Amino acid sequence: MHHAHIDKFAYQDSAIHRLDSRVKFLVVLFFTAVVISLPRSSLSILACYAIGPFAVLVWAKIPLKFVFKQILLVSPFVIVLALSCPLYDRTPVAVSFGPFSWQSSLGWLRCFVILGKFIVTMLALIGLVSTTRFSDLLAGLQKLGMPRLLIIQLGFLHRYIFVLIDRAHHILQARAGRKLRNLGFRTELRTAASMLGSLFIRSIDTAEHISIAMQARGFDGNWRTLSKLKVRRCDVFFALTAAVFMSGLYFFVKPILQ
Amino acid sequence: MSKAIEIENFTYRYPDGTPALSDISLSVEHGQKLALIGPNGAGKSTLLLAMAGFAKGTGKVLVDGFEVNSKNLKKIRTRLGCCLENPDDQLFMPTLFDDVAFGPLNMGLEPEQVKSRVAEALATVGLTKMADKAPHHLSAGQKRAAAIATILAMSPKIITLDEPDGSLDPRNRNNLMTLLRSLPQTLIIATCNMNFAAALADRAVLLDKGRIIADGEAQIIMSDADLMTEHGLELAQRKL
Description:
The structure holds 2 protein chains of 2 kinds.
Chain A: H1 21-36, H2 44-59, H3 64-88, E1 92-97, E2 100-105, H4 106-131, H5 134-143, H6 148-178, H7 185-216, H8 233-257
Antiparallel strand pairs in A: 1-2
Chain B: E1 5-13, E2 19-28, E3 33-37, H1 44-51, E4 58-63, E5 66-67, H2 73-79, E6 80-83, H3 87-90, H4 96-106, H5 111-125, H6 140-152, E7 158-162, H7 170-182, E8 186-191, H8 194-200, E9 203-208, E10 211-217, H9 218-222, H10 225-230
Helix pairs in contact in B: 4-5, 4-6, 5-6
């Protein structure tokens, strides 16, 4: 079975794809921190910050349809949070956007800022995972000092989440094939619990088999990898450009727009 | 000279007490291609795990002259490569390159040696162009070949394969047979597919209910209609 993988464009080739994973990760980390720290009442500056990840995505030839589909997939949680703002903060404010201005509430303004920050940071994050192979990202994180155990767990999660999804699909298909009438809430609940139990037992089985496969190939608890990472001149140039873009907007454009 | 595998009176029970293997004695010469045949639940997979030191029972198991015990495990695992039934269990790294490099790196080889072993193993199974792919992007046939490459990169003298033909279409099965025939190593293949076994093995061992029922020339055992039927197997139709 084939799934839509979040990193399916990471195997393309472009100048952005070839950048060192550590540099890209650090740039996205700082970018996210800067965007989160922006005032809760300014949408215009957020729009300026969106230019950065947008340019990277276009340069790396990542289809924007794919990007917005990914954002939509993870948006429900943030939408619920954002939509709760107008309910508890109804302080009236005058909003202006370019030549337009109108009356609204602070709650609505915050709602749009939360959504704006979410979209801009997600653009950056999708830009990172769509231009960096997961293995390179893990190697980069390891080089940056992330605990080895966490790296191993992330690697396994990325590798086996699709196997687990496949198994869940098969269980659901088997259930659908034999479910000929509505069974009632309690029976459905009991069936769902059994399905989850079966999935859990299969996960334990898989974990045991992986453990055997690892030990059979000499694994003794120490994770050994071939490091292929190297910071080059283009990586330094990318990091400097990102720093100038972020600090320029923060120190020069933000005060004007506020 | 020591034999590839020597097993003397090996008995193994599952943790719940169910007998899995009873009084198994078997020896395999270097370079031999052995098919372990038998119905489901006969104990074939358990016997392969016992050879690799994953199923500890009573009796003696020797791999290339080294007794299987915790002291010799490292030596045994550089001599015997075991390929599990489900390639998804065997391929656990983010890319195929990393997966094939996993064994050689654990053997303590230098980076250049590791790279050359990976390149050689991937070339042998015809997956050189897939080196940077994630294992979940491979087809079933490619995953099977990749699982074998992970073993080949460690240059073992003995390779055990558990149901290697499972869920493969005829073309991929034929490709796999061509690959396995080309390997110089001692091969021990557990399978229920008699045609697959007959095409590869020169010797067959029939297991049922944890016991060795027959041991001899593959073509003779697998063309014995009464024996095959009695143990829930089918006759080998052809030597492929």
